[in-house]
Amino acid sequence: MTTAASLPPASEPSAPAPSPPQPVPSTPEPEAWGLARRVAFRFVFAYVVLYAFPYPLDSIPGTEFLSTASQSFWETVVPWVGKHVLRMEKDITIFTNGSGDTTFNYVLFLVHLVLAAGVTAVWSVVDRRRARYVKAYDLLRVYVRYLLALTMVSYGFAKVFKTQFPFPSPERLVQPLGEFSPMGLLWTFMGYSPGYNLFTGGAEVLGGVLLLFRRTTTLGALVVIAVMVNVVALNFFYDVPVKLYSSHLVLLAVLLLLPDVRRLLDVLLFNRPTLPVEQRTPFQLSRRERWGVLVLKSLFLAVVGWSYVELRMGYVARNGDSAPKPPLYGLYEVESFTRDGQVLPPLVGDTTRWRHVGVNRYSRASVRLMDGTVKRFSVKLDAGQGTVTFSEGTGEQAKTSVLTSSKPDAEHWVLQGPFQDGTVEIRLKKVDESSHLLISRGFNWIQEVPFNR
């Protein structure tokens, strides 16, 4: 009998040889910008900062002096440029006011363009070796987002709270349409409807709020462009002197939209797929730092938002459509007009006799004469003395007349006394504003036939 030879003990499995370390993939270097792109960025960066300065520094409490100093600087430079560089025949003496399309504003626009071009030229020489401006672009994008967002929210609140376009004043109700300026017609159209103000203002606020967040910036830019292109059209075609400013707001929104134009065209026009983009920030932050920035951002927006609301609510309480009106507010028809003891009949073409008087909520009176001429006065009621002061003009050149005022009943108002080289007695009757179709018509769900008057 044979026995099997003993098998050698199984060997222990050897440990696998360590694999060579794999190289850590490095973040791909962003592609270099072309020369035209770099020059364009330098110019846009310089122009935006020049145009918006001192924002956002002037938003900090106690820094209002920056805006005053900046305005004073340009009010010195721009007239000098107009006189010595542009050789303008008339000196620039009218500065920023209710109009944003003054000669001062257009020359300032030109100065900004020239200065931005100069900065671009110097920057292009000094920094000619830089291949791209990724971080600077991200910072500019944040700057423009907040600049445009807060502007849109501010303008939107002016419509939501209906402080930009007041309801048509009493004198508007009897003003012939042909006497309206294009801007006056637009202001009356907008002021008539609280609902349309809420709609347009809400769209402006929506666009502004969307711009405050990176993820919704593109959508916000689209909303702002849609809203502001309409505003620009109204400003141009109704001769509203905010053409320069509103056009700048559209261009700022376009600047924010530019990086996504190709992707939007792929999806909406060319029916091609597109890839998501990285929502990057100018600086890499830790989780704790991101939370800190979020808290600061929330506090900043809360303070700014509340200041806007408080400002508009205060204005509404003082001058809004539902605010208390001055005692003399209303539209009055002149029943009789006596001058120097002579009763003047209501003859069309008379250059002396009054026809209507409208007193608005700002205590300004518009007196329409029988020949259609309109005289404008500020009026001040002294209830204790029983007088009303009519002032035509402003400053030292103002012509002032103090008339005895009485109201024999709720509908009538009697004025007596010296007025512009004569003695008058004027009896006026208050007109019920609801007698005008514009006021009484209202909204109707059902209309069997168009009611276009």
UniProtKB/TrEMBL annotation:
InterPro entries given in the database record: DoxX
Transmembrane is among the record's keywords: yes
One Pfam family hit: DoxX
Low complexity: compositionally biased ranges: 1-14
Membrane-spanning ranges: 39-57, 106-126, 138-158, 195-213, 220-238, 250-270, 291-309
Segments of skewed composition (Pro residues): 15-28
Region (Disordered): 1-29
Keyword terms, alphabetized: Membrane, Transmembrane, Transmembrane helix
Location in or out of the cell: Membrane
Membrane topology: Multi-pass membrane protein
Protein name in UniProt: Membrane protein
Organism the protein comes from: Pyxidicoccus sp
